[in-house]
Amino acid sequence: MDSDTNTNSGNFANVLTNSWWLLALRGIAAVLFGVLAFIWPGITLLTLTLLFGAYALAHGILALVMAFKWSKGGRHSRGLLFEGIVSIAAGIIAFLWPGITTLTLLFLIAAWAIVNGVLEIVAAIRLRKVIRGEWLLILAGILSLIFGLVILAQPIVGALAVVWWIGSFAIVFGALLIGLAFRARRWAPERSAAATTT
C-alpha cells in the first residue's frame, strides 16, 4: 500500500511540474485583474462586476484544466475541480446579474474568496508530502480566507475602499501563485537529478 501511495505521489508530482505554466496563468490573471481595478479611472460598479466575472471565469477554467491534468496523478484534483466549478459559477452570476448592488457583489466576492481559500489550504496540506514550497499555496489560501472574512465583517465601505481591497488582494494572491508556479518549474530538473543519482 505504501508503494502504491508513493507511486501516486510520484505521478502527481510529475504532472504538477509539467503543468506549472497553468499555475502561472492563474497568477497572471489575478495580477491583471488587480492592476486593472487600480488603474481604471473612475471605475464603476458595473465595470468592477464584469472585471470580477471575467477573472472568476478565467480562474475557474484554468483550475478545471489543471484538475483534469492532475487527475492522472491520483486523487489530488478533487478540491481543484470544486474550486474551478465555484469560480465559474461566480463568474456566470456576475455576468448574468450586471445590475448587482455593491453589497451583493461584496457578498459574492467574499463567498468566492472564502471557498477558494479553504480549498487552497486543504490542497496544500494534502500536497505537503509531494511538493516543496507548499507554504506559498497555504499563504495564498490564508490570504483569500482572511480577505473574504474581512469583507463579510465590514460590508458597508466606500466604493474606493472596495476597489483597493479587491485590487490589493488579487495582486498579492496572483504573485503567490506565480511564485509557486516557478518553484514547480524548478522541481522537474531537481527530480530528474534525484532519480539519476538513486
Provide a quick synopsis of the model.
The protein has 198 residues and is mainly α.
Helical segment count: 7
Residue share in β-strands: under 5%
Shape: elongated
Question: What CATH architecture do you see?
Answer: Alpha Horseshoe
General description of the model:
The chain has 198 residues and is an all-alpha fold. The protein has one domain: Alpha Horseshoe (Serine Threonine Protein Phosphatase 5, Tetratricopeptide repeat), CATH 1.25.40. 84% of the residues lie in helices and 0% in strands. Helix 6 packs antiparallel against helix 7. The longest helix is centred in the last third of the chain and has 39 residues, at 159-197. It is elongated. The protein starts with a helix and ends with a helix. Mean pLDDT is 79; it is low at 1-9 and 192-196.
List the helices and strands and how they pair.
Elements: H1 2-18, H2 20-39, H3 45-70, H4 78-96, H5 102-127, H6 134-153, H7 159-197
List its traits.
single chain; 198 residues; mainly alpha; Serine Threonine Protein Phosphatase 5, Tetratricopeptide repeat; 7 helices; elongated; disordered C terminus
